[in-house]
Amino acid sequence: MSQNTGKFIIIAGFILVVLGTLVYLLGDKLHWLGRLPGDIRVEKENFKFFFPITTMILLSGLLNLIIFLVRKIIE
Length: 75
Prior knowledge:
The protein is mainly alpha-helical. The protein has one domain (3-74). It has helices at 3-26, 53-74, and strands at 40-43, 48-51. It has a two-stranded antiparallel ribbon. Strand 1 and strand 2 (48-51) form a beta hairpin. The two termini are 16 Å apart.
């Protein structure tokens, strides 16, 4: 393994700890997450289906931005 891989793992771990802390402390303020317009929710008598497509697209874009910034910092 190269030294850059070690740096990436350390930075990724730090980011996960920060995100986990934010979710833990601000969990009651993040109730909108998963209930955005475009998230699919079907509820019937004996059946529930939930597909948070808009939330997944938003989180994917945010994660890509974070990875891009981390790669710029490492290089």
